[in-house]
Amino acid sequence: MTAKPTVRRWPIVVGVDGSDADTAAMEWAAGEAVRRRAALRLVHAQELPPWLARDPRLRERITESATERTEELFQRARGLAHARDPELVVGSQLEWGSAAGALLNAAHEAVLVVMGAATSEDQHHISLRPVASHVAAHAPCPVVVARDPAGSSAGGSVIVGVDGSRVSEQAVEFAFEEADYRGTGVVALMAWGPEPAAWPMMPEGADPQHDLAAATLAESVAGMRERYPDVPLEQRVVPSHPVRGFLDAAPEAALLVVGSHGHGWFPGLLLGSVSNALIRRSPVPLAVVRAPGHRS
Which family, according to UniProt (predicted)? Predict the structure, then answer.
C-alpha cells in the first residue's frame, strides 16, 4: 500500500440537518476520516425568511432557538463520529443561508464534502436532489452522497466510470486513491448504449464501439496502474446504458465514483447526466468528482 501522510491539512466536511440522512453521512465520513487521518467539520445551514427583518426581537428569538437546536444536532453527530473513533477531531459551524451555499463555501477548504441520502423522498434534508446535484456540480473537491451501509459491500471494490474526458481522469485518480486507503481494488467501468446514428456507414458485423471503448478505458487507467501498482484493477466494458451499467455493478461496490461533468470523444456517454441519475438512484455511496478549473 502506498505510504500515507500523517494527517490531512483540510478536513472532511459533513452536512447535517437532523434527518435520518445524518446517520449515513456521519458513519461514512467518520470511517473515511479514520482512513485518511483527517478531521471532520460539521456544517449546518439555517435559512431565515427575509420578512423576519421587520421584527428584530422575533428574529433574535428565532435565531437563538435555531442556534440551540443546531448545537443539539452537532452533539448527536459528534457522538456518531466518536463511536467510530473517540480520537477523531470534530469541528462544527452554523451557517445562515442556503444548504447548498453553506456546503460550497466550506468545500473550498475541504478534502471531501459528504451528504447523507434520506430513506424517503419527501424528507426536507440537506441532500435533497437539487442541493446534492448543485453541490456536486460546483464544489472544488469530491462530493460523496452516503447511503445506509447495509446497501453496499464493505469489502467491495471502488467502481469508477470512464468516458475519456478530463474529469473522467480525475475520477479515476480519486478511485485509485480511495481504493488504496481501503486496501481494495478498482473496477474501471466503460458502459455504453448502442447508437448506430453515431457510426454512419458501419460495416456489417463490425463492433467499433467495443474496440474504441476498450482502448479508451486502457489509456485512461494506464498512468494509475503505474502509480498504484498494489491496487488490483479490473477493466470492464459493458454494452449498456451507463446508468444501468453502474446500477447493475453497485451490489459489488463499496463506492461508486463518477465525474460531475464529462463528455469524452466516445459517443453516447455524458457523465454529467449519469452523475445526476446516480445521485437519485444509487443504492451505495456515490462520489462525484469535478475536474480542477472546471466551470459549470
Answer: Belongs to the universal stress protein A family.
Query: How far, CA to CA in Å, does 128 sit from each of 7, 90, 109, 134, 208?
Result: 32, 24, 23, 10, 40
Max CA pair span of the chain: 77
Q: Which residues pair with 296 in a beta bridge?
A: none
Whole-prediction pTM = 0.85
Half-sphere exposure of 128 (CA within 13 A, CB side): 12
Give 128's contacts (C-beta < 8 A, 6+ positions apart).
none
Give the contacts of 159 (CB within 8 A, at least 6 positions apart). Answer: 175, 186, 187, 189, 246, 249, 250, 252, 253, 255, 256, 257
Residues 136, 260 contacting (CB under 8 angstroms)? yes
Question: 152-177 b/e with 16+ CB inside 10 Å = b?
Answer: beeebbbbbbbbbbbbbbbbbbbbbb
pLDDT tens for each residue of 160-193: 999 888 888 899 999 999 999 999 999 999 987 6
DSSP letters, 273-295, are HHHHHHHHH-SS-EEEE--TT--
Question: Assign residue 122 a region: left if phi > 0, alpha if psi is -120 to 50, beta otherwise?
Answer: alpha
- What are the distances in angstroms from CA 130 to CA 13, 67, 137, 173? 19, 25, 10, 26
Residues 86, 96: Cα–Cα separation, whole Å? 29
Cβ atoms < 10 Å from Cβ of 222: 10
Tell me the one-letter amino acid at 111.
Answer: V
Answer whether residue 42 shows pLDDT above 60.
yes
pLDDT tens, 86-113? Answer: 999 999 999 999 999 999 999 999 999 9
Sorted by where each starts, the structural domains of the chain and their CATH numbers stand as 12-146 (3.40.50.620), 151-289 (3.40.50.12370)
Closest alpha carbon to 156 in 188, 182, 189: 182
What's the CA gap between 234 and 231, in Å, rounded? 10
